[in-house]
Every structure is written in C-alpha cells, then in structure tokens.
Amino acid sequence: MKRSISILVILFATIVCHAQSNHYLKKEEAPLDTMFMPAPPAFGSLLFEQDFHMYQYGKTLRKTERGKQAIKDADTSAGNILEVFSEAFGMTLSQENTPEIYKLIATMKEDAGSYATRCTKDFYKRTRPYVLYNEPTAVPEAEESLRNNGSYVSGHSATGVAVSMVLACINPERQSQLYKRGLDYGESRWIVGYHHYSDVKAGQMVGALVLPALLNNAEFMKQLEKAKKEFARLKEQKK
Predict the structure, then answer these.
(1) What is the pLDDT of residues 179-237, one digit of tens each?
(2) d(CA 224, CA 116)
C-alpha cells in the first residue's frame, strides 16, 4: 500500500513538473490584457467593416505563396516556430542545431500565446470569422477544436511578436528581419480565416508586452544567457 502511494506521489509530481515546464511565468505574472485592451469592434462599426473586407481579401491569398506560408504558420509547435523564424534569424534554428534556443522558445511561447491573451478571450468570447460566416478555413483540421474558442485577441499573433523579440535579444543584428517575421506570423491568421484582422492587431500589441515580464524572471534570464552563448559559439564557428 505504501509503495502504491509513493508511486502515485512521484507520478503526480512528474505531471506537475511537466505542466509547469511549458511556462516561465505564472498566470498572474503575465500582462492582464483585460486591463488595457479595448473591446473588439462592434458589429456594424467601421472597424468591423474593415475586419470583413480583410477577411475577404485573405481568402484571395490562400492559394498564393503567402497563403502557403500562412498555413505553415498555423503550427505553433516549438520546432515549427524555430523553422519559420530561421531565415529571419540568419541561422538554422532547431532542437538539434540550437538546443538552448529551442528550450527557451519552447518554454516561453505560451507565456504570450496563452497566459497573456486568455483573459480577453474568455471575457469577450468573440466569434471566429469562419464560424461567423460559416465558411471553411485554409487549415480545416483545427476548425472543430477552435470553434468555441474566443477570437479576440489572437494568441498566435501574440506569440509571433513575443518570439521575435526574444530572438532579437539573442541576435540583435537581425532584429528588423525578426520583427517583420513576427508580425507576418500573426498576419497569417486572418489569411487562413481563424481570426479577424482586429484580433491580430490586438494580439500583436499584447505580445509586445510579454518580454518585460520575462526579463524579470530568473529562470528565463538564465536560459536566455545559455541561448546567447550557444549563438555566439555557432556564429564563431561559421567564420
């Protein structure tokens, strides 16, 4: 009996540690978006009309190269994020090639994509455009799972900006390219039909506010230093 209890305790501790490994911040340490974000555009307003027209424009891009990029950007796994940011970073980023950078991004990405956007999503519960217009997206496999998930603000967009800023801390010489890629990562969401244009713009704003919180986190700073040293070593090897 005692052995069974011990095994359960160890299993519980393992589960807790695994769950905590996906974040540096506690929920209360992330920016509280409901404190500073306005309400989403009201139905029938000029800003809502802009959302509608951008949604229509996005559909025309889905079969273009930009549309293919948007579909690729839908994957928020750490491996895919590093892959799509590699060109902007100027180096192949992957779990194999840059394990310390991988660990940094894999742990912080949901501090932006989940913790920093959850309150506004839950408060407004805005209907996603593909649900509102009853039309398919460019990434059909995620439609059912996100159908009842709030559209405002965009977690993908927050993630893109926050990741770009963290990578720019590692490689400041490529900051402009990284910021552009981070913005493009979010813009992909209105192209594929999962977010209104205003959701994306709001998400990008929230994402930019995550880095200050991370910079006050000791574990993040420790891993950031490891990532910087890894990059410096690989950069030196390329010379």
Answers:
(1) 999 999 999 999 999 999 999 999 999 999 999 999 999 999 999 999 999 999 999 99
(2) 20
- pTM passes above 0.85: yes
Judge residue 228's burial from the number of C-beta atoms within 10 Å of its C-beta, 0-12 exposed, 13-18 middle, 19 or more buried. Answer: middle
Q: Which CATH class is domain 2-238?
A: mainly alpha
Which residues are part of the catalytic machinery? 156, 189, 195, 199
Please choose, from the candidates 73, 27, 24, the residue with its C-alpha nearest in 3D space to the C-alpha of residue 200: 73
Query: Can you tell me the distance from the alpha carbon of 159 to that of 234, in angstroms, rounded to the nearest whole number?
Result: 25
| Sequence ranges of the domains in the chain | 2-238
Nearest alpha-carbon partner for 33 in 110, 99, 95, 123: 123
CA distances 38 to 28, 155, 202, 205, 231, Å, are: 20, 16, 9, 12, 39
Cβ–Cβ < 8 Å for 123, 152: no
CB 61 within 8 A of CB 73: no
Q: How does pLDDT run across 114-148, given as a tens digit for each residue? A: 999 999 999 999 999 999 999 999 999 999 999 99
